[in-house]
Amino acid sequence: MTSELATRVTQADRGAIGLAADCLARGGLVAFPTETVYGLGADAANGEAIARLYAAKGRPSFNPLIAHVADIAQAEECAEFDATAKQLAAAFWPGPLTLVLPKRPACRISELATAGLDTIALRAPDHHVAQDILEAFGRPIVAPSANRSGHVSPTIAGHVLADLRGRIDLIVNGGPTSIGVESTIVACRAGRVVMLRPGGVAREAIERLLGRALDADTEGLAAESPESTAPIAPGMLSSHYAPRTPMRLDASSVRPGEALLAFGPARVAGADEAAAILNLSERGDVIEAAANLFAHLRHLDGMGASCIAVAPVPNEGLGEAINDRLRRAAARSLPDH
Length: 337
Ligand code: TXA
Ligand code: MG
Hints:
Blueprint: E1 8-11, H1 14-25, E2 30-33, E3 38-43, H2 47-57, E4 66-68, H3 72-76, H4 83-92, E5 97-102, E6 119-123, H5 128-137, E7 141-142, H6 157-164, E8 170-173, E9 184-189, E10 192-197, H7 203-210, E11 247-248, E12 259-262, E13 276-279, H8 286-301, E14 308-310, H9 319-332
Bound molecules: threonylcarbamoyladenylate and magnesium ion.
């Protein structure tokens, strides 16, 4: 049993940045905003802090974590960057792209954070609060999404508090996150670039930069990443984003007692009978929809509906990440799981 902590919540001002850096240096757990979702940060070199982080999240296994860095120079101390990795970091950092790269032997990041793999996931976040904390701390910070395992990722400080109050030291409140889905994860190995998780950078944007299609995952790299594109089935770790209310995807109508998660301006048949309706984006914009996704899911989950019917979302741009998260949530929320 771990004893309950007094979780402090503070607005993201200059004092909060110093407080966060001191707390991390003492092995504490600090939630802070990034442009994608709120992260739960720990000192990447402190194995004990990372063990407490897994316990706070209630993660069933030591899933590898993303190390957040201030810039490419700090990332290059931890991993081997080939020409493609350099090109991707130069184009998309700071931003919602995570690179999985060969770990350098000299890398001081805890083996627990990388779950013993010979690769490491790195990203430079594009959010001034995350950047200020990274600068004040001076070293990489590992940060999974700041939710209890099995819950949807937090896009406001209130979501973090609801999940982790009494389990972490500090929450830095920097308002709602702008992108709303997690980073895109790609692995770069031997000239190949494989997407492990769709996210805040669209596949099309990466392919445009590289001038070619991403490589197929013939080596099963995504299998190293239980939350990514592994086969989706109820009860598997891949079903990570989960409201308690069952979900029905690609719904063209709403049944009485169901809540509706709508997309776009079209009226959905039966909407008058819905227990509640939220629209991801009235104007049918996938970027706006991504920003609303997790907050809307949490909200509808609290309405006591029999089921959440979800209207179809196009699979273009950030739509790929939205549909990925929706499938995982639906797999997890099947009635017998
Ligand atoms: O936007 C984001 O990426 C957020 C913010 C806080 O940065 N973080 C986030 O972290 O989503 P998390 O822990 O919820 O998801 C990280 C994913 C997991 O699926 C993990 O398995 C994968 O990254 N991962 C980490 N290291 C890896 C590695 N070496 N190889 C393959 N997958 C890895
Ligand atoms: Mg997560």
